[in-house]
Amino acid sequence: MPDRRLSSSQRKTDFIPVPESFFTQALPKVQDLAELKVVLYVFYLILRKPDHPNFITYKELKAESCRLSAELGEETFRQALDSAVEHGALLHSTLNINGMLEDVYSLTTDSRQPSTINIFVLYEQNIGMITPMIAEELKEAEKIYPPQWIEEAFKEAVTLNKRIWRYIARILERWASEGKDSGEYKRDIKKDDPDKYIKGKYGHLVKR
Fold it and tell me: pLDDT by residue (tens digit) across 165-174?
C-alpha cells in the first residue's frame, strides 16, 4: 500500500485567527453571501499583516482579491463592499496617501493589539480640551490606526514638544505610507513646514 503519511512541510498550514468581534459585530450585519465573502477577505488581508495599520486600500483589496472579484463580477464586488459599509460590517474612510486620495476600508474593531490608553485620554493629558471638530478626527484616527501606534505617536510628539494634533496625525500618516520603523518620516517631518499640511490642496484632510 502507498505511504499516505504527510511530510511536516505538507502538514503545515497557515492560520489567520478570526477575532471574536467578527462574530459579535460584523457577521450579524452581513446580508448576503457576496457581502460575507468580501468582508471575510478584508479581515483576512488586514489580519495577516499585524504590524500594519487597521485598513486596506481599495487598490490593495482589488489586487489581492482578483479571483474573488472575477467570481463575483466588478459590479457585484463593489456593491457587496458598499453594502458591508452601509450595514456597519466594515468602515470606510478617505485618506491622503503619498499625495493621492485613497478609499480605505477598516475593521469595525482592531483585535490584533491589546487595549492601550484611550485616544481621548491621551489628547486631554498631552494637548488639552477636546473640541467637537477634534473629537471627530480622533474617532476617525482610532478606527484606522493600531492603538499602540497612536500612543507612540503622542509620546513622539511630546518628546519633541510638538503638542498639536496635526503633528501627531502627520506621524501616523507617515507610518502608514512609509512604514513605522523606516525612520524616513522623522527626517521628512524635520524638513517640512508643519503649516503646509493645512494650507495645501488636501489641507481639509489633515487632522488639526
Answer: 999 999 998 9
